[in-house]
């Protein structure tokens, strides 16, 4: 077996799209208590514009991507709004009424950084297990 076969495949992010998700939210063990809440947050991050932090997926799309029902996705969105991670801006049509939402990612509240204070890190800031 050659050394070439022993090398791990390194992902070249220039060729693969990726999403940036706030580490303190993923690392949280106190504020968000259900896995689908973090998953819905990650999905919003995936769809969010890098500068405006606005995200436009439908509840149906969020539920499909999170492998959950629409009511579960709505509950997660409600929780994310309650804890201050997102702002929900309804979009209205003059005849049809509310037709969609814009989700704006907010700076995580201090509770998220406090919940991660005890995490050990190496010199480069990577978590130690």
Could you provide a short overview of the structure?
The protein has 129 residues and is α+β, with helices and mostly antiparallel strands. The chain has helices at 3-6, 23-27, 35-47, 59-66, 70-82, 110-114, and strands spanning 54-55, 86-93, 97-105.
Describe this structure in words.
The chain is an alpha+beta fold. It has a single domain (22-112), classed as Winged helix-like DNA-binding domain superfamily/Winged helix DNA-binding domain (Arc Repressor Mutant, subunit A), CATH 1.10.10. Helix content is 37%, strand content 15%. The protein contains 6 helices and 3 strands. The chain has helices at residues 3-6, 23-27, 35-47, 59-66, 70-82, 110-114, and strands spanning 54-55, 86-93, 97-105. β2 and β3 form a beta hairpin. α3 crosses α4. The longest helix is centred in the first third of the chain and has 13 residues, at 35-47. The protein is globular and about 55 Å long. The model has no long low-confidence stretch (mean pLDDT 85).
Summary keywords:
129 residues; alpha+beta; Arc Repressor Mutant, subunit A; three-stranded antiparallel β-sheet; 6 helices; globular
Q: How are the SSEs placed, and which strands pair?
A:
Layout: H1 3-6, H2 23-27, H3 35-47, E1 54-55, H4 59-66, H5 70-82, E2 86-93, E3 97-105, H6 110-114
Antiparallel strand pairs: 1-3, 2-3
Helix pairs in contact: 3-4, 3-5, 4-5
